[in-house]
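Entry 12.
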Amino acid sequence: MSLIVRDATLEDAADILAIYNFAAINTTAVWTDGPADLSSRREWISARQEAGYPVLVAMKGKDVVGFASFGDFRPFPGYRHTVENSVYVDERHHRLGVGRSLLAALIERATALDKHVMVAGIEAANAASINLHASLGFVEVGRMPEVGSKFGRWLDLVFMQKRLASSVRP
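Predicted 3D structure (tokens):
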């Protein structure tokens, strides 16, 4: 069955929520202590889309098997050419190219929006995400020890970035 990446709709919110909440509850990919609710996921989708940013879903048949988006890196005008990505894949579909397809689509969208840099903030022990980003041209630019905590332990944050092929000038 082939993978299709498309723009998300509000009808995808429950599937996005299920994937997000699995990560939030069971992994260090999301540094929260509990699950989100459906209304917050709908609001998140709407806010991203109203800001002109994509929310994408990866489909296998009728199933949403992953989602991805990017948004402003920081809320100050000097960062307007930089975005930060988020990529989540259903745990049953890891290592099947879903994350790669979503991240590649995000890079395309950010380039089309004339963004200059895409950033990823990744928990340092998440080798799969670090390797995925590196395989698509991201390089590690910073490592911040013990800036977060979850599951009773300190977490390190790795920042990776990719310069995009945009024509934007400072």
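Annotation: The mean pLDDT is 97. The first helix runs from residue 13 to 26.
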